[in-house]
Amino acid sequence: MQNTATASRPRRGSGNWMALFSIVFIIGLYLLSTHSPGTILSNPKLQIVKMMFISVIIEALPFILIGVIVSALLEVFVSEQTIKRLIPRNPLLGIVAASFIGIIFPICECGMVPAIRRLIHKGVPLYAATTFLVVGPILNPIVFWSTFTAFRNKPEIVWSRMGLAFAAAIVIGLIVHRFVKTDQLKSAASHDHGHGLGHDHAHHDHNHLHDDHNRHHGHAHHHPKPNRAMGKLVDVMSHSIGEFFSMGKYLMIGALLVGLLQAFVTRGTLEALGHGPAGSGAIMMGLGFLLSLCSTSDAFVAQSFTTTFAPGALVAFMVLGPMLNLKGLLMMSAVFKTRFVLLYGALVAVIVYAGTWALGQFIL
Amino acid sequence: MTTNRLAPLLHHAVRLTILFGLTAYIAYLSLTGQILLFIAPQLVKYVDLAAICMALFMIGQLYLLVRSFREPVPSCACGAADGHSHGDDHGHSHEPTGGPVKNGLVYGLFLLPVLLGLLMPNEAFAGSLAHNKGMNLGVFTGGGMPADLARLDGGEDPDLKTLFRSDTYNRDYAKLGMLLYKQDKIVMSDEWFIEKLQAMNTFVDNFQGKTLQITGFVYREDGLPANQLIIGRMAMTHCIADISPYGIIAEADNAASFANDTWVTITGTLSKTTSHEMPVIKLMIQSTEPASAPSIPYIYPDWDFAKKLK
Fold first, then answer.
1. Which residues of B touch A68 (CB under 8 A)?
2. Which of A81, A85, A70 lies closest to A118, judged by CA?
């Protein structure tokens, strides 16, 4: 991508084009739907889009804010040395450790993505971060409980979901460890609002060498008047706000797309596409990707498909959705290079598909 | 240099406006109770906290705005003071990158939910969306206990136990089924709507001839015979992106006279039929009366249902 090579065109992020597209789409919808302004606003499809859009935003907001604040706290208070001490030297151990962090840190992908960027900047290896990203939204007590509630009669579905997520995380972590050696974070250039307004040093790739320097001197002298504690508070605040705007943009686009899909794609259309075990797994994975549901609520949606889809396909839906979905992918593209996002998507899709096939053969 | 000074000010001001807009809109929804049209009740407290958090961000943003007024050339460490260069080309100005059009679009995206929220009335989804979702007859799986059930004698009668033979997995539905069985009239109220439906569909044969009353919207699925319709409710887990319809098939000779999406209260006796090759209960309509849609028409799965049964 052009923006990674030259920093001179900093705002060529795909997100901006997506924003443009979304707004044009909305305006198009607005103009095409009917004739007089009053009736446009009461158009039932537009009404569905609007309600879905706002609903997804409101639902995700608390979790995004948690992620954004954790990320800002990490930036201001946790040093690289601390992180380095905490990460196990052995990669396999690191991967296993990362997949268990989700259990004590139950947070969905909305909150995870902002924190991940900061963690990688602070020296967490990419493979450990990726493992966490894969497994965190699924392997945690809240998701276990909601899945168990929805599939009270079929505990094997609950265990399959948890087990497959864990296995997929280990495999993906190992593959990333083995094959991806270079820096996959998006360069500073494409973070529009980060710098300037947020004092966001960490967005800058070439910053690695200067991190210590920053920490010791940087914050000390940008706020000459207030005392140190006040300075830290302002830092946390401005980092949080900067991050909120850079991540929130992707949430807005994702929510809009989810709203459009819900309004215009019917469940019947999807079901008609997927018959036979091979097809139904793929269809449910596609649905999991598109719907972008929160991992704690998707179990009930999966339950509503029990009459039409095999258990394997339901597990595919509940494992793939939280790892890889439209909203999350947009947010990831704010953090990682496009190539890595594509690699991640392909790995998740292939492994979940193979995993549910194996489950279908032997367990479900 | 004027643009150099104005741009960051403008950014801070726009961000302040956006934070204010979002916070005020959520506060409005929460105070008027309309928030329940968007999310499930158990999430409201988190969203309230989020609104408080954004209000704090507003204060922070106001501080940043005031600071950039007072110090037009910001004394920020990410700049020349450190000596390390980042973004050689944008030097270290706090000038926002990108053209005003793109910035406008991105910020516009944040205001879109507020604008749409103000321009369009909030609406609950009942029947109209069921068509996109496909009705769920609650065949498979499986606040305190609803009052009508709590009044019943929990003592287990051996005859009932043989009727509701259970294994480890459907024990909870068997228990609920026994309670429902003891009722003269089973009323499908908001509480435990899904759980009751699933208990009855787990033990379809035991409920033949029982009287049941249900209030919901009328809905028809493709392939439904002319003398049948579905009385349904929308269940929400977290937000309206995950709502799914649940319902009971009802049958009457004059079924065609019920228009889709109208709300009715139907009383009848239970019979059975099959849906997607699974046995499900069917309601033979005896009496109907028009009902009005509740202002919050959603029902919610009860996560602690099994615990409350004991």
1. none
2. A70
pTM of the prediction? 0.74
Flag whether residue B173 sits within 8 Å of chain A, measured between CB atoms.
Answer: yes
Q: What is the pLDDT of residues B122-155, one digit of tens each?
A: 877 766 566 556 666 654 433 345 555 655 555 5
Pairing of strands B228-235, B298-299: parallel
- Asked if B60's CB is within 8 angstroms of A234's CB, the reply is yes
Q: Tell if the CB–CB gap between B240 and A145 is shorter than 8 Å.
A: no
pLDDT band at B81 (very low <50, low <70, confident <90, very high): very low
> Is the interface score ipTM higher than 0.85?
no
B32 contacts chain A (CB < 8 A): no
Per the rule left: phi > 0, alpha: psi between -120 and 50, beta: everything else, B300 is beta
Residue of B nearest to A196 (CA): B94
| The predicted structure's pLDDT at residue B80 | 36
Q: Of B105, B128, B241, which is closest to A56 when you measure between CB atoms?
A: B241
Percentage of chain B modeled with pLDDT above 70: 77
Q: Strand ranges (DSSP E) for B146-277? A: 185-188, 211-219, 228-235, 244-251, 263-275
Domain spans, chain A: 48-362
Q: What is the pLDDT of residues A296-334, one digit of tens each?
A: 778 877 777 776 777 888 888 889 988 888 888 888 888
- B24 in reach of chain A (CB within 8 A): no
Q: Using the beta-carbon criterion (under 8 Å), do A196 and B97 form an inter-chain contact?
A: yes
Cross-chain Cβ contact A266/B173 below 8 Å: no
- CA dist B20 and A255 (Å) reads 20
B239, A201: Cβ pair inside 8 Å?
no
Task: Write down the pLDDT at residue A96.
Answer: 83
All structural domains of chain B with their residue ranges: 2-119, 127-309
B240 to chain A, closest Cα gap in Å: 6
- Among A208, A300, A314, the strongest candidate for a mutation testing the B interface, having the largest count of B CBs within 10 A, is A300
Q: Do B106 and A271 touch (CB under 8 A)?
A: no
B97/A11 CB distance under 8 A: yes
* Chain A interface includes B45 (CB < 8 A): no
Is residue A9 over pLDDT 90? no
Q: What pLDDT is recorded for position A91? A: 82
Task: Please tell me which of the candidates A209, A210, A301 has its beta carbon nearest to residue B242.
Answer: A301
